[in-house]
Design brief:
This protein has 16 helices and no strands. It is mostly helical. The protein is globular. Helix 3 packs across helix 6, helix 6 packs antiparallel against helix 7 and helix 10 packs antiparallel against helix 11.
C-alpha cells in the first residue's frame, strides 16, 4: 500500500500522457480528450443518425436492437441469431415487423431532439456492444477477429462521449470496455491466424495507449451513483488489463462483478462466463458445479462456448472421456475456423493422453 501511494501520482501522469490511438479501420478517430463536449458536428455521422432512428420508441426493445444490427451494424441474420442465442427465422420476422412499424410511425432519418436522445441511448449502446463482440470473436468464417467492426464500434462510442446529451457514465464505461478489449486484439491471434488464449498471450504486445484510454474512461464512468451492466463489464475487462501476467488476474474480483452482472442483466452468456470465472477463482470443482447449475438452460444447447467451458472443467477434473464428448459437441456447432482448429487440437490432446 505504501509503495502504491508513492507510485500513484506518477502512474496517473503516465496514463494521461499516453495517446489513445485509432484502430485500423481506414477511418481517422480523434482522441476522446480532444474537442468540446458539445461539439456541434459530432452527430453528423450517418451511422449514428441511422442508429438513433432505428431506436425509435414505437419499436420493442428487441426490435430496435435487431433492426439496427441488420441495417446499420453490418451483421447478417445468422450472426444476429447467434448473438441472441435464437433461431434465424425468429430474427428475420423481428426485422420485418420492426421495418413495418417504423414505416407506419413515419420515422425520418434525422437525429431526435436532445430530450429524446437519452431514451434511445440504451438500444444504441447495446447495438455497439454486440457489433464490437462480433468483431472481437466472429461467429463464423475464417478469421477470429473482424477488426473493422471493433474499430467502428469504438469510433461511434467515442463520438457519443463527446456530445453533452450522451456523455453519460455508462457510455464512458462502454468505451472503457472497448479500449481494454481492443488493446488485446493483436495478441489474440498468431501471424498465421491461430487462436491464442488469454493465458498465453504476450501481454507486452497489448497496446498501451488503448489500455490508458480504458482507464481514463473507467475513471469518467465512476461519476454518479448509477451502476449499469456496462460498468460491470468494464470492471471485468479492467481486471485483465491490470494483470501483468495471467496468474496475477484478480479472479475473485471478476466473480464478484459477474455476480452483480447476473442480478442487473442476467443472460445465458453471463452465466457461462461467470462459471468459467468461478472455476479460475475457486477451483475446477466449483467451476463445474456452476456449469451444472445452468445445464438445463435450453439456449445453451447450441452455444459452443458453453460446451467448450464444460470440456475444460472436465479435463481439469480428470474426466477425459466426458471432456472429449463435450469438445465434440462444441465442434459440431460450427464455430469460427480458428476456434474449430483450437478445439480439434485440444480433442486430439485428450484422446492421445
Amino acid at each position: 500500500d505504501a509503495r502504491l501511494r508513492a507510485l500513484a501520482p506518477h502512474a496517473a501522469a503516465v496514463l494521461h500522457a499516453l495517446p489513445e490511438p485509432p484502430l485500423a479501420s481506414g477511418a481517422e478517430v480523434a482522441d476522446p480528450a480532444s474537442g468540446s463536449p458539445d461539439e456541434p458536428a459530432v452527430f453528423l455521422d450517418d451511422q449514428l443518425r441511422m442508429m438513433f432512428m432505428c431506436a425509435h420508441p414505437s419499436l420493442s426493445p428487441d426490435g430496435r436492437v435487431t433492426l439496427t444490427l441488420r441495417t446499420v451494424g453490418g451483421l447478417g441474420v445468422n450472426e444476429i441469431a447467434r448473438a441472441f442465442l435464437t433461431d434465424r427465422a425468429a430474427v428475420a420476422q423481428r426485422i420485418v415487423r420492426a421495418k413495418q412499424r417504423l414505416k407506419e410511425s413515419g420515422a425520418r432519418l434525422e437525429m431526435p431532439d436532445e430530450a429524446d436522445l437519452a431514451s434511445r441511448l440504451e438500444a444504441v449502446l447495446e447495438v455497439l456492444s454486440l457489433v464490437f463482440n462480433e468483431g472481437h470473436l466472429a461467429h463464423g468464417g475464417e478469421a477470429l477477429v473482424r477488426a473493422s467492426l471493433c474499430a467502428d464500434a469504438l469510433r461511434l462510442a467515442r463520438l457519443l462521449v463527446k456530445h453533452r446529451a450522451t456523455a453519460r457514465p455508462e457510455v464512458h464505461a462502454l468505451c472503457a470496455t472497448f479500449c481494454f478489449a481492443a488493446a488485446r486484439l493483436p495478441a489474440r491471434v498468431t501471424t498465421t491466424g491461430e487462436l491464442v488464449t488469454l493465458e498465453e498471450q504476450d501481454r507486452s504486445s497489448w497496446h498501451p495507449g488503448l489500455l490508458a484510454g480504458g482507464f481514463r474512461h473507467l475513471a469518467e464512468a465512476a461519476d454518479g451513483s448509477n451502476l449499469t451492466r456496462y460498468h460491470l463489464q468494464a470492471e471485468i475487462e479492467s481486471c485483465h488489463a491490470a494483470a501483468g501476467h495471467a496468474s496475477a488476474t484478480d479472479w475473485p474480483r471478476i466473480v464478484r462483478a459477474y455476480d452483480a452482472l447476473s442480478r442487473i442483466a442476467p443472460s445465458p452468456v453471463v452465466a457461462v462466463n461467470r462459471a468459467v470465472a468461478v472455476g479460475r477463482a475457486r477451483g475446477a470443482h466449483e467451476g463445474w458445479r456452476a456449469l451444472e447449475q445452468i445445464a438445463n438452460n435450453k439456449a445453451l444447447a447450441g452455444y459452443y462456448p458453453y460446451h467448450a467451458a464444460r470440456a475444460d472443467a472436465l479435463r481439469r477434473l480428470g474426466r477425459a472421456s466426458e471432456a472429449a464428448d463435450a469438445l465434440r459437441r462444441a465442434l459440431s456447432l460450427d464455430p469460427v475456423e480458428p476456434v474449430r482448429r483450437f478445439l480439434a487440437l485440444s480433442l486430439v490432446g485428450i484422446e492421445g493422453a
